[in-house]
Amino acid sequence: MLYLVGLGLGDPKDITVRGLEIVKAADEVYLEAYTSILTVGKEALEQFYGREVILADREFVEQKAESFIESARNSNIAFLVVGDPFGATTHTDLVLRAKEVGVPFQVVHNTSILNAVGCCGLQLYSFGETVSIPFWTDTWKPDSFFEKIEGNLDRGLHTLCLLDIKVKEQTIENMMKNRPIFEPPRFMSNQQAAEQLIQVVKSKDNASKLTGDTLCVGVARVGWPDQKISVCTLNEMLNCELGQPLHSLVIVGKIHPLELDFLRMFNPDITPPDSS
């Protein structure tokens, strides 16, 4: 059996009771290690679980998943995912692969940023399409996410922006020369995301609903003991330091009075966006 087990967002103890039982009984335990991170390393997980945990990086999951999927035909394999197993399309692909070759699977759900973002006080059913904001380079500056943000604002909906994570990435030169040399991990901050969004706004000649005065919420390390939330305009977010990763950014749409009251716990001076 292949088990996809959500770990939640905080520390090793955020795993569900059912998930922990599966991990303790599994023949092998893998930790997906590139779509998100925990506050702790795998050593803390191993200590709490009393089990060896094998790190599964992007290359392993995307190119070698067949090995542990096939192992799950005759043994119990636990594949651990920070957040919820279906928070990333990679894990949907694992389920489809297992189904294709007739390997049984089960999913143990947990909290992810997609629902935990409600900690900022914005109501989950008022969120529109979630977007991902990638790191730009000198020659690659995609902005397809911007149209989705604009569409959400048109409908008065909030937008959760998931910020880029680069773990075990290679330079083009090292990749071409097949050298196993990897760049240091990088995690986009709310400030970097705001900077890229403002650059896109400027390129639209003031024709967009999103402006530097649009209300935003920056959240950092959601579910962790040192979680931080900041509410300000997009321009002000450029100078809003929320510390260590992981960060997410919310573009605020039309605000319900209860949402406004909640947001004012983090910034008493905010004014609601124009709801016309």
Task: Give the structure's gist in a few sentences.
This protein is of the alpha/beta class and 276 residues long. It is 32% helix and 18% strand.
Explain how this protein is built:
The chain is of the alpha/beta class and 276 residues long. It has helices spanning 17-25, 42-49, 58-71, 89-100, 113-116, 144-154, 172-176, 190-203, 234-237, 257-263, and strands at 2-6, 28-32, 54-56, 77-81, 105-108, 131-133, 159-163, 165-166, 186-187, 215-220, 228-233, 247-251. The strands form three sheets. The protein has a five-stranded parallel β-sheet with strand order 3-2-4-1-5, with helices on both faces. A five-stranded mixed β-sheet has the order 6-7-12-10-11. A two-stranded antiparallel ribbon has the order 8-9. It is globular, with a radius of gyration of 20 Å.
| Derived structural class | alpha/beta
The averaged pLDDT comes out at 89
What is the radius of gyration? 20 Å
Strand order of the largest sheet: 3-2-4-1-5
Catalogue the unreliable spans: none
Tally the helices: 10
Largest sheet: 5 strands, parallel
Total strands: 12
Helix content: 25-40%
SSE sequence, one letter per element = EHEHEHEHEHEHEEHEHEEHEH
Estimated share of beta-strand residues: 15-25%
How far apart are the termini?
Answer: 53 Å
Overall spatial form = globular
Detail the topology: elements first, then pairings.
Elements: E1 2-6, H1 17-25, E2 28-32, H2 42-49, E3 54-56, H3 58-71, E4 77-81, H4 89-100, E5 105-108, H5 113-116, E6 131-133, H6 144-154, E7 159-163, E8 165-166, H7 172-176, E9 186-187, H8 190-203, E10 215-220, E11 228-233, H9 234-237, E12 247-251, H10 257-263
Parallel strand pairs: 1-4, 1-5, 2-3, 2-4, 6-7
Antiparallel strand pairs: 7-12, 8-9, 10-11, 10-12
